[in-house]
């Protein structure tokens, strides 16, 4: 019988204690696990040190898996689980494989018949969508946009057109040291009526989630923190705006239209 691969979410920052962020079910599911595949060993130990693990931290087996890990290492990492051992996958922050490495390893686990168990925890893209007031029925998360110009502006305008055509919210994330520049690019590249949500330091003491039109952002306090930030845009006209249009109902005496 094969083991299980638990996908363990991680707090979104050092000022967000794991016991206050992860639900009891998630903590209970991994407290007996002693085999971990992690994006960063140091940050993983810092999280596990806060949890009531059944074994001392030094007794936990830990292997790193990041964007530089060669694909040929995946079978080796999954071998203990294929043999029946229980293991957990941890990103450096947030949910495994969401804007982080891990999808390739998870796909390989499925191919080997290893049961994959996603656990509940903080997800920056979903928290942003929840707090944005944008379309939560149809949305996309596209990871990172190009860091250099003119590719960045071209990509932002492409995403704006896609949002307008499909009526979907589109979210993307940026690192702390690039967030301010990306915000400025958004305000320069997008149309005034496009709605833009900014979510920074989610679940942390400095949490900020705000949504305005691009035009409103241009005329208000534009400062944002140098923090990991999720941006979301929605370019389709709001339902309330459509409802406010003059009614096109037939005037009295006008015969009904045939269908």
Topology:
Blueprint: E1 4-8, H1 18-21, H2 24-30, E2 35-38, H3 41-48, E3 61-64, H4 74-82, E4 87-90, H5 103-111, E5 115-118, H6 124-132, E6 139-141, H7 151-166, E7 169-174, H8 176-189, E8 195-200, E9 208-213, H9 214-218, E10 229-234, H10 239-243
Parallel strand pairs: 1-4, 1-5, 2-3, 2-4, 6-7
Antiparallel strand pairs: 7-10, 8-9, 8-10
Helix pairs in contact: 4-5, 7-8
Structure described in brief:
By secondary structure, the protein is an alpha/beta fold. It contains ten helices and ten strands.
Structure explained in plain terms:
The C terminus is likely disordered. The protein has a 5-stranded parallel β-sheet with strand order 3-2-4-1-5, with helices on both faces. A 5-stranded mixed β-sheet has the order 6-7-10-8-9. 33% of the residues lie in helices and 19% in strands. It has 259 residues and is α/β, with parallel strands linked by helices. It folds into 2 domains: 115 residues, Cobalt-precorrin-4 Transmethylase, domain 1, CATH 3.40.1010; 119 residues, Methyltransferase, Cobalt-precorrin-4 Transmethylase, Domain 2 (2-Layer Sandwich). The protein contains 10 helices and 10 strands.
Q: What portion of residues is helical?
A: 25-40%
| Largest sheet: number of strands, sense, barrel closure | 5 strands, parallel
Portion in strands: 15-25%
The secondary-structure class comes to: alpha/beta
Cα radius of gyration in angstroms: 23 Å
Strand ordering within the main sheet = 3-2-4-1-5
Assign the CATH architecture of the largest domain.
2-Layer Sandwich
What is the mean predicted local confidence, pLDDT? 90
CATH superfamily of the largest domain: Tetrapyrrole methylase, C-terminal domain
Counting DSSP H or I runs of 4 or more residues, the number of helices is: 10
Helix-strand string: EHHEHEHEHEHEHEHEEHEH
Uncertain spans: 238-259
Total beta strand runs? 10
Distance between the termini: 62 Å
CATH class categorisation of the largest domain: Alpha Beta
């Amino acid at each position: 019988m094969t083991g299980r691969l638990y996908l363990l979410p991680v707090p979104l920052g050092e000022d967000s204690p794991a016991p206050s962020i992860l639900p009891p079910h998630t903590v209970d599911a991994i407290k007996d696990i002693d085999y971990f595949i992690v994006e960063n060993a140091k940050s993983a130990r810092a999280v596990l040190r806060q949890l009531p693990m059944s074994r001392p931290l030094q007794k936990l087996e830990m292997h790193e898996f990041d964007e530089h890990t060669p694909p040929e290492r995946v079978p080796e990492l999954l071998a203990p689980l294929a043999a029946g051992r229980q293991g957990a996958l941890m990103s450096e922050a947030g949910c495994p494989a969401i804007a982080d490495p891990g999808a390739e390893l998870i796909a390989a686990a499925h191919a080997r018949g290893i049961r994959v168990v996603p656990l509940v925890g903080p997800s920056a893209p979903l928290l942003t969508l929840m707090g944005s007031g944008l379309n939560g029925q149809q949305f996309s998360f596209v990871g990172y946009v190009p860091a250099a110009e003119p590719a960045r502006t071209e990509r932002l305008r492409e995403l704006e057109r896609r949002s307008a055509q499909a009526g979907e919210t589109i979210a993307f994330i940026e690192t702390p040291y690039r967030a301010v520049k990306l915000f400025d690019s958004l305000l320069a590249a997008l149309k005034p009526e496009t709605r833009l949500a900014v979510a920074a330091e989610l679940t942390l003491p400095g949490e900020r989630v705000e949504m305005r039109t691009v035009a409103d952002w241009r005329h208000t306090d534009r400062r944002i923190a140098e923090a990991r930030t999720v941006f979301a845009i929605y370019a389709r006209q709001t339902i309330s705006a459509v409802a406010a249009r003059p009614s096109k109902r037939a005037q009295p005496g006008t015969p009904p239209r045939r269908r």
